[in-house]
Amino acid sequence: MIGLTENAAKEIRKVIIENSLPEGTGIRIGIKGGGCAGFTYVFDFDDQIGEFDEVFESQTLNVIVDKKSLIYIDGTVVDFNTGLTDRGFKFQNPKADAACGCGTSFTPKAPSFG
Predict the structure, then answer these.
(1) Whole-angstrom distance, CA of residue 54 vs CA of residue 1
(2) CB–CB of 83/64 below 8 Å?
(3) CA nearest 57: which of 90, 21, 17, 26?
(4) pLDDT per residue as tens digits for the range 58-111
(5) N or C: which end of the chain has fewer CB within 10 A?
(6) How do residues 50-67 score in pLDDT, each as one tens digit?
């Protein structure tokens, strides 16, 4: 499951309204290789659900995640920091072993079997 804090949901709703995005638009969260720590987060708006997507509801918003990304980010909580020096979305990922200083990329923990 992927969760949103109240601050993150408030900011997402604000952007949806400001950009006149279609009703039912949610947030798509995923990962791709890259960034200074190995994987970088992908964060965008979407109103299409694919056959390989999981959908979670958090703070009355749809959070869409492809199943491959979910392996590495399951349990993540997305927050939005309103501070002047570090304003933006922050990812609290329990499956991250390390993260870069800006918090947009991470190194996953080694899988445990057994």
Answers:
(1) 9
(2) no
(3) 26
(4) 999 999 999 999 999 999 999 999 888 888 899 998 988 777 666 666 777 766
(5) C
(6) 999 999 999 999 999 999
C-alpha span between 31 and 106 (Å, rounded): 10
The 3 state secondary structure assigned to the chain is: CCEECHHHHHHHHHHHHHCCCCCCCEEEEEEEECCCCCEEEEEEEECCCCCCEEEEEECCEEEEEEHHHHHHHCCCEEEEECCCCCCEEEEECCCEEEECCCCCEEEECCCCCC
Domain spanning 3-108: CATH superfamily: HesB-like domain (2.60.300.12)
**Per-residue pLDDT at 86:** 81
